[in-house]
């Protein structure tokens, strides 16, 4: 396991050395979203009974920040290694596919969780949080970051240059995130868009995470957990297959 711990340390050190960009910048972005939307919509929108819109919005913003940064961590690290050529120093040691996968995904989870915790700590003095089901929030946060870290690894393996990776993020990750109920409840949508939202796994991540904060959700949390866990398992199996076959890395 020495190789796994070394690679994990390298990946954590990589984002921690530039924490102003990887931690502080997304926290500030989330705070700006919160301030702007709460100022404009606080007195005009109520999603759940006796729940302020700002309290509804915060868990969605926290989860959105965690997901986007978990994806960015693994994808950017791998594509940079491929383009600069230092990927060879990772492929030469006798690392198994599981060690390679575990180090990248775990580092992505750590970055995502750090961003999420930072957003919560900086906003708890503005928005009182009751957190009636903290375990549900923790489970969905870990699964969500693991899923997006895995997606980032798949994107990094597939992409050969930065614009391909940017296309993956701009046309898949960001739309699925913004259309997952961060700023609204799907019950406020027309029936067609409600049905379409149910095919978006990001919706279940955000809805389940929000349940831990509010004790209310659009979908039963156990249902959301099954979909998120199943999606993560499928993506992890596919990513491990790519690593074992050496797709676009060794061949």
The global form is globular
Give the proportion of residues in helices.
Answer: over 70%
N-to-C series of helices and strands: HHHHHHHHHH
Strand content: under 5%
Biggest sheet: strands, sense, closure?
none
Q: What's the number of domains?
A: 1
Brief rundown of the structure:
This protein is an all-alpha fold and 251 residues long. The protein contains 10 helices and no strands.
List keywords for this structure.
251 residues; mainly alpha; 10 helices; globular
Please describe what this structure looks like.
The protein has 251 residues and is an all-alpha fold. It has one domain. 75% of the residues lie in helices and 0% in strands. The protein contains 10 helices and no strands. It has helices at residues 2-16, 19-41, 53-84, 88-91, 97-123, 134-158, 162-178, 191-197, 201-214, 221-245. Helix 2 (19-41) crosses helix 5. The longest helix is centred in the N-terminal third of the chain and has 32 residues, at 53-84. It is globular and about 60 Å long. The protein starts with a helix and ends in a 6-residue tail after the last helix.
SSE blueprint:
Elements: H1 2-16, H2 19-41, H3 53-84, H4 88-91, H5 97-123, H6 134-158, H7 162-178, H8 191-197, H9 201-214, H10 221-245
